[in-house]
């Protein structure tokens, strides 16, 4: 396994490289992809009730032969499940599908009107020891400020869209200041990173793939990253990012690719 992790503010260790399961078809495709990832050495699996494949993720974990306590499992409460009681109910459904009695990280998937009540439910689950860490996803600074203002426990993680075209400097700085670990979804821009000339040049310079350059950049930016693939070769390739380092100059060049261009929805304007 990859012995690379970051310590969250409550002392829990979170692997810096995870395996994403968004849009992997439920059933054998998910089972195989997750089993392949675990066999290769991933120990951090990211899922969500909205993805509709939690039962398959759970099946893969059970069949993998890897001990549950050696795997860091994240899931998220969906928008329609928000609210205090609804969230507690959604959590029970999630762990039942996954076949576990606890989660390593539970997140609010998107900022919505019921965030405060939902966060209270996450705090309850954390205090009861049902979840080892709690956090949010897709929260901007002002959403975080609202949560923090009424919270007993400050979010430990914020999973957001983060990639070379959208490095979110202001949000990164805010999270660092508040000891909130940033985690990147869509780090490879759903494949669009492969069209960027600078990344092609850097891949050649370091004798690495474009994916490896971008994922390494995430880690050096202090950001946990969760690439997704169903291709065994690419799953392995994405994990080979611990044997090289990008220079400060090249880190800066990648940061200059910023166009503030999102590949996903703006959290201030979601209608789902």
TrEMBL record:
It comes from Clostridium thermobutyricum. GO terms for molecular function: oxidoreductase activity, acting on the CH-OH group of donors, NAD or NADP as acceptor. CDD domains: AKR_AKR5G1-3. It comes from the Bacteria. InterPro entries: AKR, AKR5G, Aldo/ket_reductase_CS, NAD(P)_OxRdtase_dom_sf, NADP_OxRdtase_dom. The record marks 76 as: Lowers pKa of active site Tyr. Substrate binds at residue 109. PANTHER family: 2,5-DIKETO-D-GLUCONIC ACID REDUCTASE, NADP-DEPENDENT OXIDOREDUCTASE DOMAIN-CONTAINING PROTEIN. Belongs to the aldo/keto reductase family. This is NADP-dependent oxidoreductase domain-containing protein. The active site is at 51 (proton donor). The keyword Cell division does not apply. The keyword NADP applies. PROSITE patterns: ALDOKETO_REDUCTASE_1, ALDOKETO_REDUCTASE_2, ALDOKETO_REDUCTASE_3.
């Amino acid at each position: 396994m990859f012995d690379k992790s970051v310590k969250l503010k409550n002392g829990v260790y979170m692997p810096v490289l995870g395996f994403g399961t968004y849009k992997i078809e439920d059933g054998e495709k998910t089972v195989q992809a997750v089993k392949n990832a675990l066999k290769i050495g991933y120990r951090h699996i990211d899922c969500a009730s909205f993805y509709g494949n939690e039962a398959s993720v759970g099946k893969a974990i059970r069949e993998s032969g890897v001990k549950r306590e050696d795997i860091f499992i994240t899931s998220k409460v969906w928008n329609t499940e928000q609210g205090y009681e609804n969230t507690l109910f959604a959590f029970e459904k999630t762990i039942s599908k996954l076949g576990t009695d606890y989660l390593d990280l539970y997140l609010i998937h998107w900022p919505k009107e019921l965030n405060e009540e939902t966060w209270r439910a996450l705090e309850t689950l954390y205090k009861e020891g049902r979840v080892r860490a709690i956090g949010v996803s897709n929260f901007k600074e002002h959403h975080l400020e609202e949560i923090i203002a009424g919270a007993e426990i400050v979010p430990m993680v914020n999973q957001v869209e983060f990639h070379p075209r959208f490095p979110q400097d202001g949000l990164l700085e805010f999270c660092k200041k508040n000891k909130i670990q940033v985690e990147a979804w869509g780090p490879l821009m759903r494949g669009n990173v492969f069209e960027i000339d600078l990344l092609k040049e850097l891949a050649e310079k370091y004798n690495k793939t474009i994916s490896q350059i971008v994922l390494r950049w995430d880690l050096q930016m202090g950001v946990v990253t969760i690439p997704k693939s169903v291709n065994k070769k690419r799953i392995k390739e994405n994990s080979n990012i611990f044997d090289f380092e990008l220079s400060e100059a090249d880190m800066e060049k990648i940061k200059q690719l910023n166009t503030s261009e999102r590949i996903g929805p703006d959290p201030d304007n979601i209608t789902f």
